[in-house]
Amino acid sequence: MTAARTYSKYSREALSLLGKQIRMGRKQRRWSEHALAERAGIARATLQKIEKGDPGCAIGLVFEVAALVGVPLFEADMAGLPRQHERLDDKLALLPKAVRPAATAVDDDF
């Protein structure tokens, strides 16, 4: 049996906040849980977990539901995402391809 996964307080709070934003977006659109779940192609129970901030939900599902109700994740408009991708690609190109831990110092003091 595997041990239960623990999450930092920051992660739990961020998930809870995103879930509340999704719930608010759904209610502002006057969509029922069933209607949004159907639009997203998920079960109503999964939507309820997303809205409660359950960390076990797939990130792709959470992002899709957020997009459906109009919750901005990174940019308020879609035009900004390609720019962010380009900037990060440029920065990643400058970093080494592989990252290794620092070598330990050799203790040769006999």
Automatic annotation (TrEMBL):
It comes from the Bacteria. One of its GO terms (molecular function) is DNA binding. InterPro entries: Cro/C1-type_HTH, Lambda_DNA-bd_dom_sf. It comes from Thioalkalivibrio denitrificans. PROSITE patterns: HTH_CROC1. This is Transcriptional regulator. Gene3D superfamilies: lambda repressor-like DNA-binding domains (1.10.260.40). Pfam families: HTH_3. SUPFAM superfamilies: lambda repressor-like DNA-binding domains. Residues 22-53 form the HTH cro/C1-type domain.
